[in-house]
Amino acid sequence: EPEVTQTPSHQVTQMGQEVILRCVPISNHLYFYWYRQILGQKVEFLVSFYNNEISEKSEIFDDQFSVERPDGSNFTLKIRSTKLEDSAMYFCASRENNEQFFGPGTRLTVL
Amino acid sequence: RKEVEQDPGPFNVPEGATVAFNCTYSNSASQSFFWYRQDCRKEPKLLMSVYSSGNEDGRFTAQLNRASQYISLLIRDSKLSDSATYLCVVPLYGGSQGNLIFGKGTKLSVKP
């Protein structure tokens, strides 16, 4: 069964450093998403992406964040200068019809 | 602000019990609803989609009450493997597409 994959599974970084989180959505899906979940809190929407551009973003997704689809398979989330409060699980999702399927997540720890 | 509210639990039930969770949503324009389950430190996995009055899949039944703006999830004959957090999820813009708003989840613990 096709699934969304994400790398790395765990990323540790120093405050102020740039990180890139990678996702490979399910191959025939056209809509892609990033969500985050701070430990013990609910899953929060960050950004949606369709037809090679951002279709929607939340107030969390400020100028420090960017997304890219550099080739036909990868979908990346970049955080330019990480802050302590960026520590969270970051989930990528892709959508077929009305249903979104999530990857296993990247645990980002900012020290 | 569009919100999804759930009873956080935890619900501690014995194997074989029937348990029900409720969820209320604020966006009256919502047309579709989802229940996801999330195991500890794992990704949300889609359990059930609800587009009309309800849906049933084996031991799981979801019911929708549009007038009261709540959705319920019923689990019959609960198994140890049902232990997880159950997330009520509603699309942001009320339609069946687009960005999802998650509830905080209801934690279920099924004991032998």
Stretches of chain B where pLDDT is under 50 for at least 5 consecutive residues are none
| Helix/strand order of chain A | EEEEEEEEEEE
Overall radius of gyration of chain B: 13 Å
Number of helices of chain A: 0
The gross shape of chain B turns out to be globular
Q: Give helix and strand order of chain B, one letter per element, not per position.
A: EEEEEEEEEEE
Question: Could you tell me which chain pair has the largest interface and how many residues each side has?
Answer: A-B, 23 and 22 residues
Total of DSSP H or I helical runs spanning 4+ residues of chain B: 0
Number of strands of chain A: 11
Strand content range of chain B: over 45%
Summing up helix and strand content along with how strands pair, one would put the structural category of chain A as mainly beta
Describe the structure.
The complex is a heterodimer of chains A (111) and B (112). Chain A has strands spanning 5-7, 10-13, 19-24, 31-37, 43-50, 53-57, 65-68, 75-79, 88-96, 99-102, 106-110. By secondary structure, chain A is mainly beta. In chain A, the strands form 2 sheets. In chain A, strands 2, 4, 5, 6, 9, 10 and 11 form a 7-stranded mixed β-sheet that branches. The mean pLDDT of chain A is 94. Chain B is mainly β and 112 residues long. Chain B is built from no helices and 11 strands. In chain B, strands 2, 4, 5, 9, 10 and 11 form a 6-stranded mixed β-sheet that branches. In chain B, strands 1-3-8-7-6 form a 5-stranded antiparallel β-sheet, with no helix packed on it. In chain B, a hairpin with a 4-residue loop joins strand 7 and strand 8 (70-75). The mean pLDDT of chain B is 90. At the A-B interface, strand 4, strand 5, strand 9 and strand 10 of A face strand 5 and strand 10 of B.
